[in-house]
Structures are given as C-alpha cells and as structure tokens.
Design a protein that fits this description.
This is 2-dehydropantoate 2-reductase. It comes from Albidovulum sediminicola. Catalyzes the NADPH-dependent reduction of ketopantoate into pantoic acid. The termini are far apart. This protein folds into two domains: 2-177, NAD(P)-binding Rossmann-like Domain (Rossmann fold), CATH 3.40.50; 180-301, N-(1-d-carboxylethyl)-l-norvaline Dehydrogenase, domain 2, CATH 1.10.1040. 46% of the residues are buried. The protein has twelve helices and 13 strands. 43% of the residues lie in helices and 18% in strands. α1 (10-21) links the parallel β1 (2-6) and β2. The chain is of the alpha/beta class. The structure holds NADPH dihydro-nicotinamide-adenine-dinucleotide phosphate and ketopantoate. NADPH dihydro-nicotinamide-adenine-dinucleotide phosphate binds next to α1, α2, α3 and β10.
Amino acid sequence: MKIAVMGAGALGGYFGGRLAAAGQEVTLIARGAHLAALRARGLKILSPRGNLHLPAIPATDDPGAVGPVDVIMFMVKNYDVESGARAIAPMLGPQTMVVTCQNGVSAHERLGAIIGARRVVPGVARIPAHVAEPGVIDHSAMWDRLTFGEADGRVTARVEGFRDAILAAGATAVLPDNILHDLWKKFISQATLASMTTLTRLDLGPLRANPDSRALFVAAMEETERVGRAVVHDLPGGLVQKEWEILDTLPDTMHASMLDDLNAGKRLEVDYLSGDVVRLGRKHGVPTPIHNVLWAALQPLKDGAPPRLANAD
Ligand SMILES: NC(=O)C1=CN([C@@H]2O[C@H](COP(=O)(O)OP(=O)(O)OC[C@H]3O[C@@H](n4cnc5c(N)ncnc54)[C@H](OP(=O)(O)O)[C@@H]3O)[C@@H](O)[C@H]2O)C=CC1
Ligand SMILES: CC(C)(CO)C(=O)C(=O)O
C-alpha cells in the first residue's frame, strides 16, 4: 500500500513509522528541523510498545515529488487543516482515501470542503505522543488506537484494507459503528482535558483528585454533551460517564497534547476544542458558560510562544 503521512509529527511519525516497519511504502511529509533530522538520522520512536529506528525512511516537504498514493494519513494540527488540504493536491489520485486524526469535531468537514467529502474518512486517535526532539517521537503509554470509518457508516473495502494494514503493523485500528459518535465521545472529554490541563499547567492527576476541580471537569463535559446532543440527534446517552471510566484509569501524569504544545511554545488548538463547544453551542442555542471561560482565558496563549510569566523570576 502506498501511504503518505501529511504532517509526520507525533501521530504521523508514530503510525507512519509502524506502517513502514511492517513493509508498507510510506513517505513522511514534514518540514523544518524535524524534516532535516528525519533526512539526516531517520525516524526514532520511543514507545512502551517497542522502540523503533528507521534510518532511511523517505521524508520530504514536497507532496509533488510523491505523486498519487492509496492512503493519506492527514495528521497536521487543526490550525493547519486548510493549508494542509491544499498542499496534498498532488498526492490525490482518483481512489485516494484521506484519513483524519485531529481532536475536535470539525477537521474532517473542513478538509472535505477543500478536497471533496467522498475522499475523507474521519478518524479519532487515542494515543499520547509528542515530538521529543526533531526526528524523535515519544509515545508514553500502551494505547495507540486509531478509530476511523466512512462518514455514512458503510464498511468499505478501503477502510477494511487500511485497518488490516495498521493491525499488521502492530498498532491498534478500530472500525466503529458510527464514527461521528466516536468523534463526539472523545470530544466530550478532550475539550475539557485540553483546556483544564493547559490553563492550570497541571496533569490530570491533581485535577481529578481535587473535588472542586473534578466537579468543574464533570460540568464542562456535561456542557459539551448537551451541545453534542443538539448537533447529533442520535448521540448515545451516558457519554460523560463512559469517558470518566477511561479518565479514571489514566496515569496521574497524563495531560493533553495541548499542554505539551504550550510547553513547547507552539500554537494551541483551543479554538477547535473549547472554542468549538462555544461556537456550536451558540449555533444550536445551548449555553456553554464553562467552555466560554476556558476558551477565553486561553486566548492570549493560542498563538504560541507564551508570554513570560509575571512571577517567573
Ligand atoms: N499528540 C497527541 O498525543 C495526540 C494528538 N491528536 C491530534 O492529532 C493531530 C496531530 O497532532 P500531533 O501529531 O501531536 O501534532 P504535531 O505538531 O506533532 O505534528 C504535526 C506535524 O505536521 C507538520 N506540518 C503541518 N503542516 C505541514 C506542511 N504543510 N508541510 C509539512 N509538514 C507540515 C508540523 O510541522 P510544524 O511543527 O513545523 O508545524 C508537525 O510536524 C492534532 O490535531 C491533535 O489534536 C490526537 C490524539 C493524541
Ligand atoms: C489525551 C490524549 C493524549 C489521548 O489520546 C489526546 O488525545 C491529546 O491530548 O491530544
């Protein structure tokens, strides 16, 4: 299978590396110091599921040099979806499938508006990872799950084939009954996890242990669930509780990738997390006071390179 990874950072490097190690024809699309390191030293993955070093994995910043592929793993951040969508044009053949992984609920629609919805297979990733240094992906827990499926719920040969390729590579792939439900299920916890860990600069452990911050966490998730129910009328019940069954099993040191982004001086995806809770709440007449505070409080940090803390000295 010919696979291109558009945005071979934390997630793209992880899944692209596993697929390449399993013999798939993978090209990483990257840029800057990360691309230079990939070319000079190859890709390294540090992972409890097994470390990996691929010294000669193909990497480029030029999708035109790759040409049409079977699958594009579209793994840029939310704020790069539109520019990334335009950049992948030379890799789109008549049958190319483009699988997403972005947190939030809007990336697949924004991508589809540019490249055509029929090409897009929405996905949800459950895998904690970050780029520890250029060329090196640090995957910090056992889970490495990519759930994806056709937006209309059909189980097609293209999604089955790609699921089998990921499973053969030793990572986890799931075809759900309804990918839109899965997107919202994760969004209900992720929008809150991202904003609360980033705003407080704390891991999940202390936020979950303190009764007041836990209550705020739960209320923010319930707010998102109410918005979800207004947007997707057949969203199953009990999603907040189901997400807490996951949150309560995570290590104390778990935090959202958005906190890693803050610490690395990168841009934040907050407009697509708490920001989209607020935006969709307004659109559907559902009040979102908690996410409005979380979203607004993070605005001064969202463009990256956080201002010097007033009391840092
Ligand atoms: N990291 C995690 O633990 C998880 C992340 N997610 C979601 O997955 C998505 C990807 O996250 P993550 O992997 O952490 O992000 P990263 O920033 O690690 O990776 C994205 C990569 O895409 C590169 N990129 C963007 N545009 C281009 C371009 N035009 N050409 C070449 N390279 C490009 C970026 O380069 P540059 O750095 O120069 O911008 C970066 O290296 C996010 O939406 C996130 O919400 C979901 C679950 C877990
Ligand atoms: C919480 C985690 C790491 C789970 O996959 C995540 O999705 C993120 O923070 O982006």
